[in-house]
Amino acid sequence: MADTLTITDNRTGKQYEIPITDETIRATDLRQVKVNPDDFGLMAYDPAFLNTASCRSAITFIDGDKGILRYRGYPIEQLAEQSSFVETAYLLLYGELPTETELATWRKDLSGHVLLHENIKMFMGGFRYDAHPMGIFLSTVGALSTFYPLAKNIDDPDSRRRQTLRLVAKVPSIAAYAFRHSVGKPYVYPDSELSYTGNFLSQLFKRTEPVYRPDPVLERALDVLFILHADHEQNCSTSTMRNIGSSNADPYASLAGAAAALYGPLHGGANEAVLRMLNKIGSVDHVPAFVKTVKDGQGRLMGFGHRVYKSYDPRAKVIKETADQVFEVTGRDPLLDVALELERIALQDDYFVSRKLYPNVDFYSGLIYQAMGFDPAMFPVLFAIGRTAGWIAQWEELLRDDTRKIARPRQVYIGESERDYVPLSAR
Ligand code: CMC
Asked: What letter does residue 309 receive in the DSSP assignment?
C-alpha cells in the first residue's frame, strides 16, 4: 500500500499523487493543483488551526481522546508524583532527566540568576497599584530584552543557555513582585536556602520574620501545579512563542508575546474566570440554574472543554487530588462543593456529554491557588511561571530546526476588488 493520497481536481479532471508522512500531507504539495499554469495553486483554509500541524516536535505528546499527556515520553502522572518542577523543566529543555550532578548544577545555576536588576524593580514600581499582575508580568518580561541585548544572538547556543537560565530563574521573582506591588508591599530578596518554589513563596508572602519557612504541603502542591502547566505542545501561547521566535526576535520579546496570549480567558486566564464564575454562582443550589444559562448560550462553563482533550484532562485528575491535600492544611473552601456539583451535573448532561466537554486543568487549580492565599488576578501569572519552561523548550527546538522559516500564513481575500480613489469632496 502506497503512502500517498490521490487527489482528483474535478475542475480539470487532473489527478495528483501526494505523499503522506506521519499521517500528514504537506499543505505546500497542494500548490501544484491549478486550473491555469499562472494560478497561485490550491491552499488549505484552516482558521484557528483546527487540523494543521505547524511543526515537528519531540517535546510533548498528547492523545486527546485517551486523556494522555507525556513530557519527553514520561507520563504526566509519574512526573507529578515523583519529579520536581526544576527537574521537569530540565527534562523539557534538554530532553532527558538529569543525573544527580546535572540536577545539582542546574539548581545552582538557576539560583544564581534569581535576582532582578534594581532598575527592573523600579520599572515594575511604575505600574499603578491596581495594575493587573499579568499585565505587569508580560511587560516586565518584554522589558528584560533591553537589559540583555546579547540575547539577540539567538544563533549562539551559549547565549541561548544563559537567557534560558535567566528566564526560568527570574519569572518567579517578577511574578512575586507583581503581586507585592499590587498589595503595596516591598520586594523580597531571594533566599538561596529554599527550593525554587519555596523561595517563590517566600518572595510572595514573607513579612517581617527573619526567615520564611513555607508549609511543605503547599510548597509541594504549587510545585506539582508548575509541573502540570509546564508544557502542552502547540497551544495558543506556545504557537505565539514560536511565531514570534520565527522572526529571530530575542527570547524575552517572544516570551512576552506568549504570556500575552496566555492572558486571555480562553487560555491561561481561564482559571481566574473559573473562580469568578464559582463566586458568582455562590452556592450548590444555584448550580442547576447556572448550567441552564450556559446551555442557553449565555456564557460558557469556564474550566470545561478543550481543543485537544475530548475526555477528562489528565492534569485535572492530578489537580483534584492535590486540592484534597491542600484543603487539609488550609481548610475546605465551600466553593469546592459548587465546583464538584457543577462537574457532577455537567458530566451527566447531554449538552456537555455530546460535545465531549470535561473539566480541564483550570477547573480546580483556581481553588487551590485561592486556598493558598492568591488573588484570582495572580492565577494566570502562576500558569506562566510553569509554562515558561515549555515556551523556551519549544523556542529552542524551533531554533535547532533546519527547516525553520518565518511563520507567515496565507489568507483568503474577501474584500473589494480594485477601485479608484474618490476625493474627500466627492464622497
Ligand atoms: N461551556 C459551554 N459550551 C462549550 C464550552 C464551555 N466551556 N466549551 C465548548 N463549548 C461548546 C461550544 O459552544 C460549541 O458548541 P456548538 O457546537 O453547539 O456551537 C462546542 O462546545 C465546541 O466548542 P468550540 O468553541 O468549537 O471548541 P474549541 O475547541 O474551539 O474551544 C475552548 C476550546 C477551551 C476554548 C472552549 O472549550 C472554552 O471556551 N472553554 C472554556 C474556557 C476554558 O476553560 N479554557 C481553558 C482551556 S485549558 C487551559 C489551557 O490549555 O489554556
From this structure: -
For residue 223 the three cell numbers come to 510545585
Dist. CA 266 → ligand 1 center (Å): 8
Catalytic residues, which ones? 267, 306, 362
DSSP letters for 319-351: HHHHHHHHHHHH---HHHHHHHHHHHHHTTSHH
Q: What pLDDT is recorded for position 332?
A: 87
Question: For 243-290, how does the pLDDT look when each residue is reduced to its tens digit (9 = 90+)?
Answer: 999 999 999 999 999 999 999 988 888 888 899 999 999 999 999 999
**Architecture of the domain delimited by 60-268+378-400:** Orthogonal Bundle (1.10)
Query: How many angstroms is it from 306 CA to the middle of ligand 1?
Result: 6
Euclidean distance between CA atoms 307 and 330, whole angstroms: 33
- Quick: pLDDT tens for 376-395: 899 999 999 999 999 999 99
Query: pTM of the predicted model, to two decimals?
Result: 0.94
**Ligand 1, atom 31: nearest CA belongs to which residue?**
307
d(CA 40, CA 378): 48
Q: Where do the domains of the chain lie? A: 1-45, 60-268+378-400, 270-371
Strands, E, within 130-279: which ranges? none
**Residue to mutate (ligand 1; options 46, 304, 347; most atoms within 8 A of CB):** 304
Task: Please report the atom of ligand 1 found closest to the CA of residue 268.
Answer: 52
CATH of 270-371, one of 1.10.230.10, 1.10.1740.10, 1.10.10.60, 3.40.50.10330: 1.10.230.10
Atom of ligand 1 nearest to the CA of 274: 44
Q: Is the CB of 235 under 6 A from ligand 1?
A: yes
Q: Taking CA 89 as the corner, what is the angle to CA 85 and CA 95, rounded to the nearest 5 degrees? A: 135
Is the Cβ atom of 300 under 6 angstroms away from ligand 1?
A: yes
Q: Write the DSSP symbol of residue 21.
A: B
Residue 266: CB within 6 Å of ligand 1? yes
